[in-house]
Permease of the drug/metabolite transporter (DMT) superfamily
Amino acid sequence: MVFVVLWSTGFIVAKFGLPYAPPLTFLLLRFGGVLLVLLPLVLLMRAPWPHGRLLHIAFAGILLQGGYLAGVWCAIKLGMPAGLSALIVGMQPILTAFAAPFVGETVRPRQWLGLLLGICGVGLVVAAKITLVGLSWTSIGLCLMALVSMTAGTLYQKRYCPHFDLRTGTIIQFAASFVVLLPFAIFYEHLTPALDAVQWTSRFIGALLWSIFALSIGAIFLLFALIRKSAATRVTSLLYLTPPTTALMAWLMFGEVFNLMGIAGMVVAILGVIFVMKK
């Protein structure tokens, strides 16, 4: 539940941070901040570095961090409604279930029922927020890229590198993601002018710090621990709880709509996750 709450704040952070910085520039500052925080701690604690799996860990990180976050944030910046992006990315548990044999897992009929209930619940929650205004093929493509990237990253890590020291493994993944995103930020956002254009307001600084500590360190550590201990389908089913929790947060913080349909969607999504998780 701690993971669900932390992960759900991602869209709230986007609402606070995107008005003050281009998306890729924000992500580079976020990834760089993680490295500045973790690297001295890792060296001080003499945490073990992985041997023989470094490339696997780095590739999984590029998919989980770079591909997923860049896709969602750029899509929202281009005008993709947050509700629709949440619905598209919310297809991940079903996509993961179809690919479960790749990691030697089977999905039982009751779990398939839970997955279908989960996506129906997400649809009910975001129904009031779905609009086609500002929608483009580019933003749709970026959201689909984020969906595929997150799913592939979860399955790849589950199969090839589920066990590694979270401290050093996280550094490897964020360093690899930083290197991959850097040329895109330079080409598309003209990085130096973009950095000069960053508005260092209290909202932006708060969003950046929360992204570094709560999301990129706290939530990611929990995600990796869950991938290590549970089946990929069960882990990703928890993401069905993200849109309802985010909608509840947005209602409390920004006064956004959260009606009876949203409450019904939250109940259906929770029921779906129970069907998937229950042994």
